[in-house]
Amino acid sequence: MKKLIIYLSLFTFSFAGCKKIISIDTENADPQIVIEGKINDQLIDQQIKISKTIGYTEANVFPKVSGASVTVTDNKGNTYVFKEGTTPGTYINKMKGVPGVTYSLNVTAEGQTYTASSKMPNVVKMDSIGVIKNFFFGRERKTAAVFLKDPANETNFYHFNLYVNDILSERFYVNNDRLTNGNDLRLQLFFKPPTNDHDSDELNSNDKIRIEMECIDSNIFDYWYALSQQSNRGPNQGTTPANPTSNISNQALGYFSANTYEVLSATVK
């Protein structure tokens, strides 16, 4: 028995001596332009936001890009000039987008030009929103849900934002009608509070829920879908996160979307 203990000790020690220290290179990459823009079908101050990425070791503050030239044109011959507002890096024009029209973005910033285009889909309305009761291991859980009728004569893509007591869920919610074309849809949106928030991910009586729905084009669906795949993974699952494919040229990050917009609110009973 003593010999066995000695052999095991030597065996363990030999493996301990094989450890190798691996140095991970975390050098900062060159900053990249990030453009986030939406044109919707409401008469509001439409916004194009321009910022830059930061290095791995830098503080979580993204530099805003001022002094850019930002225009949006449509296939009807209209041009909209976006002016920088009081918030640096945010460019504004009060206008109303029209379903069926294609909008093209042109941004010149820091000597580089970036372009993108997006066609605003037809309007699809939510029928209602509500709460569905599910049972997990004998325990009831309430979940926000959207109810709508998907049109049968076209391909549709949807993006949703969920707020609970004015807190935006960290999940990304998207849907297409590839398998449900023309059906009555009931889409459940599971709430995910911010990671630094101590609020529960469960819905309780008297909670206020608000759901925004956007009808989006296929490129923007691909963008939000890629983000949803990453955000909905649990720890230690999947591959290393990557930037979703942007519809903006010249290797810019972000997106430019022409989409419809609707919002409904309800109270959990």
Automatic annotation (TrEMBL):
Organism the protein comes from: Pedobacter jeongneungensis
InterPro entries: DUF4249
Domain of life: Bacteria
Protein name: DUF4249 domain-containing protein
Pfam families in the record: DUF4249
